[in-house]
Amino acid sequence: MTAMERALLMDLFDKREAGCEFVFTGTKGSPIPYGHIYRQFGIAQNNANIKNKIRFHDLRHAFASNCYDEWWKCFRSSKATRTY
Fold this sequence. Notes:
Blueprint (H helix, E strand, L loop, with lengths): L2 H13 L18 H14 L8 H22 L7
């Protein structure tokens, strides 16, 4: 995540309604329905003329894989692991 992306998300997080645990919410602070997210994701792909459609779940998997890869790089290069 870039510094700009983090700053944007933190700004949204700070502006959420008091007591709400979600960053992205509906108009009354309730969670956004999954169907709405998937529908908008499909519309965004169509608007971007993406021919090989991806599923929203694919993004979650890619994010998890990238996080693991970054963690592993840090773990392998850590001085603490050299003693093992």
